[in-house]
Amino acid sequence: MGPIKKVGIPAHLKCCVAAPKTTENLSARDEVGAGGFSRELWLNEPERSAASRYPLNRTSTTKYTLLTFFPKGLYEQFRRLANLYFLFSAAISLTPLTPYSPVTVILPLIFVIGVSLIKEAIEDWRRHGADVEINNRKVLRHSGGGQLESVRWRDLRVGDVVKVEKDAFFPADLLFLSSSSEEASCYVETMNLDGETNLKVRRALEQTLQVHSDLASFKDAHIKCEDPNPSLYTFVGTLEWKEQTTSIPPASILLRDSKLRNTEWVVGAVIFAGHDTKVMQNATDPPSKRSSLERQMDKIILALFAWLFVMAFITGLVYGLLTKRAMPGAFYLGPFQHEVYWDPDRAAVSGITQFVTAFILYGYLIPISLYVTVEIVKVIQAFNISQDRTMYYPETDQPTNCRTSNLNEELGQIDTILTDKTGTLTCNQMEFFKCSIAGVTYGTGQTEVEKAAIKRLKAEGRWHGDEESGGAGELSPTSSPASNGAPPPPLSIGEIEAGPTDAGSDGRGNLPGAISSPKGSANGSVGAPRPLSPSSGTVSSPVRSPRAKRKGFNLVDERLQGGHWLEEADPGTLRMFFRVLAVCHTAIPEGEPTRDKIIYQVESPDEGALVEAAAAFGFFFYRRTSSAVFVSEPSESEDGKEVECKYEILNLLEFDSTRKRMSVIVKDPAGKILLLTKGADNVIYERLGSSGRQYAAATKEHLEQYSQAGLRTLCFGFRVLDPAEYKAWSKTYDAAKAIVGPDRGQKVDEAAEEIERDLTLLGCSGVEDKLQAGVPETIDKLAKAGLKIWVLTGDKVETAINIGYACSLLRQGMDRILVTLDRPEVAAADEAGDKDKLFEVSMRLTVEQLEAGLARIAALRKKETENPDAAPGVFALVIDGKSLTFALDAQNKDKFLELAQACAAVIACRVSPKQKALVTYLVKEALGKICLGIGDGANDVGMINAADIGVGISGFEGTQAVMASDFAIGQFRFLERLLLVHGRWCYRRIALMISYFFYKNVTFGLTLFFFSRYAFFSVQPIYDDWYLTFYNLIFTSLPVIAVGVLDQDVGAATSLAFPALYLQGQSNSYFSWSKISAWMLNGIYASLINYYLIIQGCTNQAFARNGRSLGMYDIGTTMYTSILWTVTFQMCVAIGYWTWIHHLFIWGSMALWYLFCLAYNALPTNISPNVHKTLVERLAPAPAFWLLCLLVPTVAVLPDFIYRCGQRLLKPLDVHIVQEVEKSELFKRDPAAWQAMAAHAQKDTGVGFSRAVDDMVAGVTKLPKRVLGLVRKKKGARKRQPAAGASLEMPPSEARHPV
To answer: What does the alpha-carbon distance between residue 1042 and residue 1132 come to, in Å, rounded to a whole number?
Structure first.
């Protein structure tokens, strides 16, 4: 385990966390009229509001303007050290100090900077086009005298009254005045704001309901409200009109960029315009992310600058000394006739000027085109990832989307994955699966968790029950006599892990089939079934009505279906339970009001499942107005005919993350006032009355069973209110809502607390969120790749643990360490109301549990050391949200991280969005490893932004997570291919490309330094100026791009079959400092070989038939050609996968060099004075030229080639063995041998998923010699055709293709 860094949580991290849908964040604000609440405006009188100089409604999201584009754009480009150096070189080239022609320096710099600026301009122009389209949208504005005129959005002012029609966007933040609806309400879609697709109800102020009928008389309406802020879910302000002051609730605000739906028109007044609107206040740039390879690349460039400085200093120093001592004797150079450069009397000045000149000339060590090439390669890589059809999800039409190309290689270096559960590991498509009503449990189906548990019991030989019946989620009862025909309960964790003699088993491995019954329940058994089938004595197959097939409903139990619930022992309680399902919600019905065609717009999938369940049980919700809901339900008479019931909504107490409950106060058709409540079990149980706990014990037992089965649970209660009590409370509640100031949210919650008490418990529901397809296999494969997986979820501990087993995150043999504050000491301190005591007890218990966990692990490790043959212990950490709050404290976080690092899996339960972000930031900064955050909802945005790489899943919770992410995928299972295939490829390609870039520049650049020894250290280049210019820009650029885009060491199927290959990226084996140093040393060797062998081969001898020897530029051209062949040969040695594009770019670049030579040498001497007809007349006719260009590159590349061959033969790496396996087609020649390898690769991973993973591929060498014999047989690489899928046991014959 690596060292843990000391880190602090930054204050800016709060910006990453999605704002909760609550008004509690108002508590820090000041009162109206003070700072934060100083905005005043007059409606329908914009001239009066204009005095405050509020901005117009024009918005801009561009990064540049016409005036700032070049200054700001150039500043951004020259922030890069390399570009700044080349700017300095271009400036020096205009002085006498330049070693080459200015045009050969300035043109490449202009090209590189120009490409980057053009890219920036194109992106900003697109943003400008979107701004123009939005600013020029039209809306109707009141122009006076009751007349409406069409104006552009950009021309709106604060105080304007506008009319927005159906399916149009709101142009600004508006106060809702009136609408076409009789109830003065409207439906709003806020997808562009928070990513949620459900419709929301907005209501106009009662004071302004009829404003639309006489807009001309709507004057002197004065608003005092909060200043512009980014909170989407809160608003504080008052409206003063006609001597009345009315509080403006958030539900009366229509936000810019939300859309009007299902309402013909609304009238509103502009409160915030332009950049003051809440959507623009939220439009902050995402956190800047740079890959670790880029940061390391910057360090390499700094090292090269230091190297460059040393060479230039040596050149200047030696030149100064030679000028002082040797120059007076060199009379033929006329030293005393020059002003500075060769003047022995001014040797120091000569040395300094020569240092500057050398610093410019040796700059070819620094690749000018590196940054541009890397950007081009990453863009193409991102395009290839997006075009991978195997990561396309057709159900949502969602391909993989690379929202940024800067982090491609980071995908191949992930160490820790932090993932949400709901909607990420699960489908977020809720199904009403089980329920407990009046102490009786209903539902006979099996959840995914139960199926996974049975599968494990069968694998361990402890399951002897019948196979599944094949029904829709049903399980045939076992032969246990205790079952008595009752539906089997969910499996508990104890039953999953217990042996054959443990409690909870009948001794033969059968699951228990009965639940103990409280007194007074029907038939003496909780959950007594309908009459038994005479043929088998088991529960007869339920006759499903069409309603049972509704989406979101999957409860199988004939006691409730088809109206049979009326025959149960307590139909009154069942009726009230179903009534709560049908009435206590905020769903909006759309479409025809029939059971088959109606569609519910809901705020969460859970709520949709509950409403669908109510309809399936006969309580059909079909209409909503601002003041009532309408439900078709069975009458209470004996005939049970359906009747339409109107429930008048008196108050709606909405759900939020603090209250954890929702209540609605309604007046039923009989005139009774009912309080209907649903919420978390602990919240509901705290509010039960003494007479409402009749079913509390049985319901609590069922809640635990549902949670253990992986179901999401809610409790339901009700209370009949006395009219007088309600009237008094209503006044208190209305007064609390009318408060404007910091205490408003607290007062509203206190008022709600007064009425939500003395509840009668009805029962609970169990809603299943199914695992996404392929999640267990994906987690298993990622674990074998050495990735640590943390699950951060808001679910209960039991639910999260069971989901962990179902998705293979938790496995048999794991020792769970549970850190929780669900302890009696904490409960006692909480009930006493002593906050200091509560803090002290919570902190102490958290620390004790963390230390106890570390002690357990240390003790086991000590035993393993004493007994090396013992199997290594594997731990899993489970921590709840309350404990996590204290574990993240500055004095505890190191212990928490140490414990988490020692565990193979970490599950954090009941965590808030902010805690997700804090944990992610802590893991990233303290461990110094690359982490990935993945989620699908707005509550995951903080985690996604805090992680090195954020991945969003386009699911059913909107697109906010996707909009905040770096990569977007359709399903969690695609993460396997994204990381193990594309991530590993991208990392290897970028690492190889950058290493090769530095190699070829060192090989070329050092020859300039070596030649200075023969030129009196005068910085005389041996190459023509245009040769210097085109080396990086043309002749060696295309092969690098081919490697960065297409190179592979093994194919996609093999990467998936041997996931431990991913460890190469985690350890940064391709771009470590040792690997970079090896490339640099190889470049130095190649430079020495090319320089000295070419010099020796071209001097002191006749080179042509006429006996003529070569001049300086002739030798330079020969050396330049030799270096091009050297770096080309090195590229061929390093490439792991050849395509026709590789051949075209590599050999095409060499052909381009010879064509350029012919063309440039043929130009007149005033254009190519140094190399006029060099190739045709002096070099090409000489066999020695061709011989040198073949032998010298061979000698330069030979050591690296020998090393690679020797390593592969004598001490092969994991990837070498896998390559041999792939090329030998072992799966065809000997399937048994391949199965042996596959079985070896399936070993359970050890602590931290590292110990066994390290040996996974290396263990291939331990296979029988018969297998290794086949592996070592080298056959010619066959041509592979793309195939659709990949399998571990029998991979397809495709294996490799670029995408």
So the answer is: 12
* Extended beta strands in 133-279, E state: 138-144, 147-152, 161-165, 173-179, 185-189, 199-203, 221-225, 237-241, 244-247, 253-254, 259-261, 265-272
**CA atoms of 1074 and 1076, how far apart (whole Å):** 5
Give CA–CA dist 646/524, Å, rounded: 38
String of DSSP letters for 237-266: EEEEETTEEEE--GGGEE-TT-EEES-SEE
Q: Which of 160, 194, 257, 420 is catalytic?
A: 420
445 is known to lie in a ligand binding site? no
Rounded CA gap, 488 and 493, in Å? Answer: 15
Task: Decide: 269 and 239 in contact? Cβ < 8 Å.
Answer: no
| Cα dist from 1192 to 161, 435, 671, whole Å | 82, 81, 101
Structure token digits, residue 1010? 């070596």
CA distance 340 to 326: 15
The single residue listed with the structure tokens 């409370």 is 729
Check residue 1228 and give its pLDDT.
59
**Of all helices (H) and strands (E), which one includes residue 432?**
strand 426-437
Edge to edge, the sheet with strand 185-189 lists 199-203, 185-189, 259-261
Whether 712 has a binding-site annotation, put simply, is yes
Determine the Cα–Cα distance for residues 888 and 442; give it in Å rounded to an integer.
41
Question: Could you give the CA distance from residue 77 to residue 109 in angstroms, rounded to a whole number?
Answer: 11
Q: Are 703 and 489 in contact (CB under 8 A)?
A: no
Is 420 annotated in the active site?
A: yes
DSSP letters along 676-714, please? Answer: EEEE-HHHHHHTB-GGG-TTHHHHHHHHHHHHHTTEEEE
3-state secondary structure 652-685: EECCCCCCCEEEEEEECCCCCEEEEEEECHHHHH
Residue 1276 assigned to a binding site: no
Could you list the beta-strand ranges (E) of 59-206. 138-144, 147-152, 161-165, 173-179, 185-189, 199-203
936 appears as a binding residue in the annotation: yes
- Sheet (strand 905-909) strand order: 401-402, 967-969, 949-953, 931-935, 416-419, 788-792, 905-909, 874-880, 814-819
Task: Give percent of the chain with pLDDT exceeding 90.
Answer: 23
Cα gap 899→850, rounded to integer Å: 7
pLDDT at 803: 76
Residue type, 820: T
Whose tokens are 């450069």? That residue is: 341
795 known ligand binder: yes
Please provide residue 624's backbone torsions phi and psi, each rounded to the nearest 5 degrees: -140, 135
Task: Tell me the CA distances in angstroms from 93 to 129, 529, 898, 1016, one per residue in order.
Answer: 40, 94, 56, 21
Residues of the chain with pLDDT under 50: 9-35, 467-548, 1238-1239, 1241-1299
- Please provide residue 610's backbone torsions phi and psi, each rounded to the nearest 5 degrees: -65, -40
Kindly report the CA angle at 933 between 927 and 935, in degrees rounded to 5?
155
Residue 1076, phi then psi, degrees to nearest 5: -65, -40
DSSP 287-320: PP---HHHHHHHHHHHHHHHHHHHHHHHHHHHHH
Q: How many CB atoms lie within 10 A of CB 889?
A: 12
* 678 has binding-site annotation: yes
Q: How far apart are CA 875 and CA 399, in angstroms?
A: 37
3-class SS string, 1154-1198: HHHHHHHHCCCCCCCCCCCCHHHHHHCCCHHHHHHHHHHHHHHHH
Nearest to 289 by CA among 782, 971, 955, 967: 967
Q: How far apart are CA 1041 and CA 1299, in angstroms?
A: 15
Nearest to 981 by CA among 411, 416, 419: 411
d(CA 271, CA 235): 11
